[in-house]
Amino acid sequence: MSDSRSSWQGVATHIPGCNKLEAMLKRKNAVLVDGVVLNGPIIDSKAGEQLIEEAYKMIIEEAVRKATDVTEKVCEWQPPEQLKKLLDVELRDSGEHHQRLLQLCQSVIRYSVKTSHPRFFNQLYAGMDHYSLVARFITEALNPSVYTYEVSPVFLLLEEATLKKMIEFIGWKEGDGIFSPGGSISNMYATNLARYKYCPDIKEKGLSGAQRLVMFTSEESHYSMKKAASFLGIGTQNVYFVKADDSGKMIPEELEKQIQRAKQEGAAPFLVCATAGTTVLGAFDPLDKLADICEHHGLWFHVDASWGGAALLSKKHCKLLHGIHRADSVAWNPHKMLMAGIQCCALLVKDNTDLLKRCHSAQATYLFQQDKFYDVKYDTGDKSIQCSRRADAFKFWLMWKALGTRGLAERVDRALALSRYLVAEIKKREGFQLLMEPEYANVCFWYIPPSLRNMEQDQEFWQKLHQVAPVIKERMMKKGSMMLGYQPHRDKVNFFRQIVISPQVSREDMDFLLDEIDLLGKDL
């Protein structure tokens, strides 16, 4: 080492204007490479730790306590150009001092939507689970990547235990799985697995000589199935959308017709995707009947239970997913109804013959050496389409440890009970009209302002009603009182979709929701 250091010191004497460098090298016995002194760390750890401590206090106060306080705003709306100025988004050559960074962090929290607020009903996720949040703090600090046991021993074992328990609730005796970066990716995994099972040569030989493949899903399914077909080269025209009934459930007889159509066209059917909890209506496809059809035609049966999978934990509501044990694969997102924190999504596979690994492995020898000193079956990263992968299972594992299965089931039962309460209140109140009786936690309804209540429900009525929800949404966001989603759907004009998830939500919040909509919209 001394020879190497002295040789670099010699190089320094030839650098123009290096008298100061020479003095520094002699005084500190430093090593210089390409004009960079290599002795010691360049990060001020004490200052960094102080920043973390101060930021942590702010996070607890602003992003935890206030963000879950029903008396605080859900959001502080700003238009994009104004928000850019308030956040000082530009990046510069020189760094900012810590106090300025703390001010920026405070602004980020202030102007962000508080998704943990009891009156955030906008998406299929909401609320704050404190156990999950602790787990996220830990994984952010440790910064693990879950691909090999040598670098992530703890989180690989926790993922294995969590997947095993989820598989048990699906009703399989054994299986496989992996946590993925979202239900969309889980659905893409399932599509790729189904194709590999049907035609394994595609992995190496590609699509050029392959038969035209066709996949089937409900017209109410998540748009990720269409994206999966595009991304995997199957083609969006080869996604055959199956008609759903008025409640949003796939019609088995229509699936049979579509399969026959594909076969008559000379195409190869290979996958059916059912949905357990559709995004808008919260509908559950008839899994048993669809499984019969898949079994008859030899098709891979995937169930997208990203939203509805949580009902499996409830003895009251698990019947919604009757027949899911017959699926070949299941997508399930604990970050939705179970509040494990975004993102926390699992793909579960009935196969236990390493199909997941065979389909996706690339056998990178710098990661997955087979002569390691431990059991390499724990190096699960080759099952994934990713290399680096977050320790998402830990959030769900710690929450499950804290609450137990009974505690998780209570959350599901309470959310659905609150939904039923809201439905009953909507039926009582003048100016509110349900689209349909909900099957899950999706409560879809119209608000009809006084000016429209005595109108005949003709084309003009529906055109005017279509304009009501967007105006109310704008007003609630600018006021910051709550957030509630709306959308048109099929032949229905804009309506509100209220989602109940968080155990912090109360009956009073359901009453407030209806009162606030009436307050914001009664002049329309």
Automatic annotation (TrEMBL):
GO terms for cellular component: cytoplasm. Gene3D superfamilies: 3.90.1150.170, Type I PLP-dependent aspartate aminotransferase-like (Major domain). The modification N6-(pyridoxal phosphate)lysine is found at residue 336. GO terms for molecular function: carboxy-lyase activity; pyridoxal phosphate binding. GO terms for biological process: carboxylic acid metabolic process. Keywords: Decarboxylase, Lyase, Pyridoxal phosphate. PROSITE patterns: DDC_GAD_HDC_YDC. This is Acidic amino acid decarboxylase GADL1 isoform X2. It comes from Microcaecilia unicolor.
